[in-house]
Amino acid sequence: MTRTYDDGLGEVADVVERARRAGPELADAGRERRARLLETMAAHLDRSRVELVATAAAETALAPDVLDAEVTRTADQLRMFADVVREGSYLEATVDSAPAGDVLRWLRPLGPVAVFGASNFPFAYGVAGGDTASALAAGCPVVAKEHPSHPRTCRAVLTALRTAAEEAGFSPDVIGMVSGFEAGGQLVTHPAVTAVGFTGSVGGGRALFDLCAARPEPIPFYGELGSVNPAVVLPHAARTPDAVLEPLVTSMLTRGGQVCTKAGLIFLPDDADQLADQLRQRMADAPHPVLLNESITAAYLAGTAQRAALDGVEVRCGDGAAAGDDARGPVAPVLLATTVAGLLADANAELRQECFGPYAVLVRYRSVAELRTALAALPSSLVAGVYATDDDLPDARDVLPVLVDRAGRVVWNQPTSGLRVGWATQHGGGYPASTAAGTTSVGATAIRRWLRPSALQNWPAALLPAELRDAVGGAEPGLPVRRDGQLHLPEAV
User: Fold this and answer.
1) What CATH code is carried by the domain that includes residue 53?
2) What is the pLDDT of residue 364?
């Protein structure tokens, strides 16, 4: 049995029930109160910054300055969703006038949702991360699953969020947490849980996805499972390697290659020897990172060794071995090389799958037509990069449709590993990058995952939900409304 804590961590049934009871107040609070809740949570993360960074640094081996920046990103993300809630267009409020009574359509919160955070971003993809921020903004209480890689960090963040909820006038049970391997399965199959957000491995995510689908009443599973993320260097850019070297290295080695947007496949023209050698040298000179946990280290060592032994694969740098026999010791960066034929060989399927850590594969192509064939055969990715000069524009135009089809975001001459959090952010894609290609897990429109459409016909204004009262002249700040097909925006203050 799992011990029950007064701080929101306890038995699955108990925590979910408390979230269910807290749900109506959160859903009916109105946009302004929910916005203030998110801002108060952001403020409490800022106040707890020193403790949070120290705790996470001890548990993850990530540098304190990296973690401090991540706390800032997480707090800013909460504040961004406060702006999203106040602005109101996420509700898609729509009115059709008719003599028999108006029809009002809007998006309403689903109810309690489950959130499974990631090992590599203990704050931005953790208990207070994007899934939690967007769900609370939508009006859904959250039950998080404590991550075994950083449990003390999870609990410190949970305490900050629950304290903030009480300060903002809400039940602290708008956010709770459960712990333990079995709790994950129990959480996604609990009848009161209405949707799941997940960031993690293909194996773990797929198991939970299947549980969600097998429920008597299936629920949405928004999973980010794995992404190989191709980076394409076009022929003219390859002849000026200094211009593209830094964004490529950053794409491969940010956080020791432990980011979901790491460029795992680097496509180079067959004659790009100088750039290939520079990339090899930068990988060889790179620091040997300590990976996030023992299971990630073991998977990295086994995965790089297995890939290095494949037919048609050359080891350009590193053997992946950990220092000594310590499963938590530093690992060597690994750079492999192959051809398009080697990449696409049936026996080399592992090359087309994500390998977490400081690892990448150089893939040599002989023509842009061969490059297109290779890109079209890859699994979907979160992001793809194109590195080019103005002279490469015709070739870039040729490969862009393939990249747009296979990746949720395509960047031009910038690292794939950067992700700006805002209104235009798209962080998703086809499977296995995402289990829901029509959504994003980061950015303003992530809120859409936790909402469902509903309509009211001929109802009196006094009985409308708080969010809809603006549509008929209520007292809340102005709400964008589409009335009889015409979009009406609130007047600027």
Assistant:
1) 3.40.605.10
2) 98
Q: What is the pLDDT of residue 326?
A: 59
Catalytic residue at 317? no
Q: Are both 197 and 243 inside the same structural domain?
A: no
Is 355 labeled as catalytic in the residue annotation?
A: no
Question: CA-based diameter of the chain, in Å?
Answer: 79
Q: What is the dihedral of CA 404, 409, 412, 418, to 10 degrees?
A: -160
CA nearest to 18, candidates 152, 170, 147:
170
Q: Please check whether residue 480 lies inside any domain of the structure.
A: no
3-state secondary structure of 149: coil
Sequence-ordered alpha helix ranges (H) in 190-293:
202-214, 235-238, 241-253, 273-285
Confidence of residue 78 (pLDDT cuts 50, 70, 90): very high
215-247: per-residue pLDDT in tens? Answer: 999 999 999 999 999 999 999 999 999 999 999
Least confident of 146-155, 179-188, 432-441, 459-468: 459-468
Residue 477 binned pLDDT confidence (cut-offs 50, 70, 90): low
Marked catalytic residue, from 260, 317, 354, 467 = 260
Amino acid letter, residue 225: L
| Residues near 85 by beta carbon (within 8 Å), at least 6 away in sequence | 31, 34, 35, 38, 137
Residue with tokens 């075994």: 148
Angle, vertex CA 384, rays to CA 425 and CA 198, nearest 5: 55
Q: How confident is the model at residue 7 (pLDDT cuts 50, 70, 90)?
A: low
| 419 located within any domain | no
Sequence length of the chain is: 493
151-167 vs 49-60: helix crossing angle, rounded to 10: 160
Same domain, 201 and 260: no
Range of the domain at 32: 12-225+437-450
How many domains are there within the chain? 2
Tens digits of per-residue pLDDT, 291-341?
Answer: 988 889 999 999 999 999 999 999 999 876 655 445 678 999 999 999 999
Tell me the helix, strand and coil percentages in the chain, rounded to 5: 45, 20, 35
Catalytic option among 146, 224, 354, 467:
224
